[in-house]
From TrEMBL:
Protein name, as recorded: AA9 family lytic polysaccharide monooxygenase
GO cellular component, one term: extracellular region
GO molecular function: cellulase activity; cellulose binding
UniProt cross-references to Gene3D superfamilies, sorted A to Z: 2.70.50.70
Keyword Secreted: yes
Lineage: Eukaryota, Fungi, Dikarya, Ascomycota, Pezizomycotina
UniProt key word Signal: yes
Annotated compartments: Secreted
Domain Auxiliary Activity family 9 catalytic as annotated: residue spans: 20-228
UniProt signal peptide: 1-21
Free-text domain note: Has a modular structure: an endo-beta-1,4-glucanase catalytic module at the N-terminus, a linker rich in serines and threonines, and a C-terminal carbohydrate-binding module (CBM).
Reactions that this protein is recorded to catalyse: [(1->4)-beta-D-glucosyl]n+m + reduced acceptor + O2 = 4-dehydro-beta-D-glucosyl-[(1->4)-beta-D-glucosyl]n-1 + [(1->4)-beta-D-glucosyl]m + acceptor + H2O
Chief location bin: secreted
E.C. designation(s): 1.14.99.56
Length: 251
């Protein structure tokens, strides 16, 4: 009796763990960079990814884990040319309602001292709901579900330097119980860009949205909404687009 109870709890926990996900590798140019493949402590070799502890979601917008899912440093970094692409890959992913948001943060110096703190995070890419209803699979996370990959372009005009790139899946399949899945990697951006976003494009993590933000606190089953706005700032794409967005925000 005791055994079977313990067994079913363990089985349940195992099922839970296997039902979530995390970024487990990156493809940049023709190179694949391994991320972490298993739970902490890592059995993987050195990676460009900051280590996450497990596949479980972060459940609070104010949790320190929102930053990089606990990871604070990584041994390696990957070089990517501004205008090039970064593809994140997930070994597994199971939810199909909620947005994908991809963020970057410019490090002041080397990666060791780059803690991701302060109002330095900006979005380079996101996909929320492309067509109603909210209960459909017309979401960014549904693309990750089918492809187990997400490709973003590093803005061509972005200034070179050391950056963190943070992939965030926000799963909304449980009413008013948002689940955040963020992982970070270290990338060295090259090129002749001169721009870095400012003002309304920048935010802190944690802190980019409140728990009651309509993009965070959602009941997809009872809501009559036909559109969805991703939480946080507008996406910064660089060049002219930056100025247009900035003006709209200041108005
Ligand atoms: C990034 O990685 C390269 C090797 O690929 C290394 O030479 C360089 O020092 C690293 N940069 C930082 C800031 O750690
Ligand atoms: Cu899950």
């Amino acid at each position: 009796m005791l055994f079977s109870t313990t067994f079913s709890v363990v089985a349940l926990l195992a099922a839970e763990a296997s039902a979530h996900g995390a970024v487990t590798s990156y493809v940049i140019g023709s190179t694949t960079y391994n991320g972490y493949q298993g739970f902490s402590p890592a059995s993987s070799g050195p990676t460009i990814q900051r280590q996450w502890p497990d596949y479980n979601p972060v459940l609070s917008v104010t949790d320190a884990k929102m930053l990089c899912n606990t990871g604070t440093s990584a041994a390696l970094n990957a070089t990517v040319a501004a205008g090039g692409t970064v593809t994140a890959k997930w070994a597994q992913w199971t939810h199909q309602q909620g947005p994908v948001m991809v963020w970057m943060y410019k490090c002041a110096g080397d990666f060791k001292s780059c803690d991701g703190k302060g109002k330095g995070w900006f979005k380079i890419d996101q996909q929320g709901l492309t067509a109603p209803p909210l209960t459909s699979n017309n979401w960014g996370t549904a693309v990750v579900y089918s492809k187990l990959a997400w490709t973003s372009t590093i803005p061509k005009s972005l200034a070179p330097g050391n950056y963190l790139i943070r992939h965030e899946l926000l799963a909304l399949h449980q009413s008013n119980t948002p689940q955040f899945y963020p992982e970070c990697a270290q990338i060295s951006v090259t090129g002749s860009g001169t721009q870095v976003p400012s003002g309304a494009f920048l935010t802190s993590i944690p802190g980019y949205a409140t728990a009651s933000d309509p993009g965070v606190l959602v009941d997809i089953y009872s809501s009559k909404a036909t559109t969805y706005t991703c939480p946080g700032p507008a996406v910064w794409t660089g060049d002219g687009a930056a100025a247009t967005h900035a003006k709209r925000f200041e108005a």
